[in-house]
Amino acid sequence: MESNAGTADGETVILNCIDPNGSSLHEDHEEIVISTVEVGQWDLPSLAHRPIIKIKANRQRLVQHSSYFHGLLCGSFSESCFDSISIHWDMESLLSMLRFLFGCSLDLTSENFLPLYEAALFFGVEKLLLVCRSWLNYVTSEGRIRPPQLHLGDLVHIWEYGRENATDFIPQLTDCLARNFIWMTSCDSFHNVPFELLLSCVKHPCLTVDSEKHLCDAILLWLAANTIPYDLLNSTGDARVAIFTEIRTSLLPLPLAAGKRRCPLFSKFAERSVNAILSLATSSSFSLANILGGGDFSQLRIRLTEYTKILDLSGCPQISLPLLLLSMLPFSYSVDTMLTKKLNQLSLKLEPSDMDVSRIPWENFPVLTFEAVEVVDVSNCPMLHLEAAIECFSTSFPSLTTLKAAYTLNFRTMKLYQLLQKCPLLSDIDLTVESNPVIPAKVSVISSFPAVKLQISTSFNEETCPAVPTFHFPRRLWNITKLILEGRTDIYDSDLHNIAECCPSLYCINLNACTSITDSGISVILLKCVGLHSIFACDTLFGHNCVLSLCRDISRFDGVAIKMEKNTNSSAYKLQILHIGGCKGSSLEMLDVSDTKVSCHAVGHVVRRSPHLKCLIARGCRHLLQEENNILENFPTLSYNCPVLYYELGKSCNLEEISLGWGFSFFSLETLRPAIKMLKTFIVGLGGSLGEDGLKLVPTFCPWLETLILYFQVISDSVVRNILETLKNLQVLALCYCFGEISSLSFQFSAPCLRKLKLERVTAQMTNDDLLTLAQNCMNITELSLLGCRCLNSESQDTISNGWPGLISLHLEDCGEVTAKGVTSLMNCQALEDLLLRHNGLGIDRNFIICAASRMPLLRKVALDVCDAKDGDFDLPDFTDRRFLSIVKIARCNLKRRTLYSIESGPCTTPVHAETLILTWDSEKLSRTVVKERL
């Protein structure tokens, strides 16, 4: 709004505004004269770059609203009688201040706040000072920072100004940044935050982080960016080292804590953290008093504030219900000895994995409410009794919309109803468990033992646990849109019927490896949940009924009309993802036709109708190559250098993931180039042949690759070096059964981004020294698979455990004598979730499985071979000994003579695979199966 003050009666004064930082080389030397009468028409962007501007201003208006001009124009200064005065100040902030002073509105941002505040302070414009302070109070008092309005660099400058000038900005800025710590760490200028400000935020009671992991990573990131000398960091008097004590190391995820043992800045704290985590995770009964010795409970309190939106506890085997409850209670209750006693008693009651949680005296625990929490992730938390934890979530997190609880075996699917009833706003649920490797279509079963029911507490009414688990909903739950039940064998057709009836808003369902459901049960979901556009049903009995349901006209449910051609009302037409190993849908984002007999024509048809296709998986499709050749024979004008399918892809798609095999060649890569410029995952399997020239082009064609997996390709050191040097975002590299061999030269430079490395039958000459070189240059690997490295011996265990202490997956097969002297150092990889040791030397103890489960609280999968058993066999764990294990696989070999003439040279024999014993546990039972395949 423009004021009429400029036209009021009174003298006019000329302000000669000179920018001390302005350039005297301004191209336009014309004198600029403007007036406050037209203040609303000032072109501020262009005027701000002028070094000198003359402004005609109303003297009285200046005197009334500015103590500076009042003293200058009304006092005893000589300027008081001048018609013109000079002002040396930053032009942009001066013009903005004058516009405000003469009635125009002000657009404050974090960028112009400080210049305007300094101008208001110097010129004594109290009204502008008040507006600036009010704006700062407003933007810093909001729960969440809005990036377009606030920038971290500007907030830091404001904080530094307040610190230098003893203003009261400091507390409110610290409050704001502590509440928005995750946002602060995500900013490019985070490393420029002064240490004093960082420390103040970390110490602040309102510090809000998703998990203790984020705080740890942020501190290490800041320290690494600020190049603090190693000897200074080890000085006990350095406050920068003391900041680590603010991390609640007992609450870090085990993989993170274990991995940081290699970090020079954090190694001592990481060692203490691992010890504390294992103490909490492996104790037979949880006792706060024993753990803390009557000390400070605050180190065991999960960070929860009124601003917490995401609570991420994944990978924390130490998290239990008593510890969770402790974090949800008012702080004053932490030192209540009676409450401590009740928490310890609660831990004893929860030892049976399936106790009746309704009998817990919840009234003894007055938990707080955290309205802002929307997402909770308790995946890989084996000690947490999920059914009991849900009781806490329902009270403390009334706004909960997303629950991730993957790999929680002690939660039975039949309890899903209670979960949905307790948390009515839930829309996204992940209850994934490890997929059973015994898939009937993929293995040949030799024998199957009767399933053994687990020992479940029967303290509650048996009617709540029927022989065939079902759950019933008395009302429709419209909020549920995404449901992941992957790997759950305790879900049946009756459960799918109930889900279909009461969750009509589902748009994504994952039933991968749910082997207890049938084609009929899945079809009900497809028919009744008309909004479904993402379906995952790999390794199920998805079949004819499902296809009919997908193709049925969803506008009619009378069972009469089934339109199979060009039906825009069918579910198939609306699909975005169909992950079943084959697809007849259109308008897809993901298409998986791997290991099928689908034709090139059919895939091309789908591709033409799916311009939004992001992912194509077509490995193992021999017919694609055959069909392609037929087309080329019938249409000789088409060049073999431009295959039809790849031409369609290159013409219409912008892919992020592609997996191909038979018929894929160097020429195919050239044709695909327009479609793969943003590719993130590239897999080339059996039947594909890029050649060395093609592999060297991959980093050029796909510069953003994060995953590269190659089977049966021709490789060399130069190819691998080019890949690792050029693809800066590469996180996953797998070289499997490739022709040619690579040496340590491929890994003699740093690859800090690499997280997963698989070398199978490509590094036969790898030595312990080569492995050490690999560990030094690829130090952030968390998943390692080595196959056929026959020169390794038991000393390599030290290299692996010391080089990658945070490993979560380790596969060693046919690797020389790695386990010939037993498994000792590898037991220090205490964050392992998946461990495979086969044909690495006869020396593994009989009780290895039980011992590993007790030492590695996150271990879910173990695979061994009897050939390596020192005593000829392995002890199988019972329900108690298995801890978190869900799958144990023990392969067995027969010994056969190598040649017909082996008698002459002695009893020389070689092991030949015979069978694999597989033990699987779910929430109800233990199953034992023997199959022919090596799994």
Automatic annotation (TrEMBL):
It comes from the Eukaryota. This is BTB/POZ domain-containing protein FBL11-like isoform X2. The lineage of its organism: Eukaryota, Viridiplantae, Streptophyta, Embryophyta, Tracheophyta. The gene is LOC107793620.
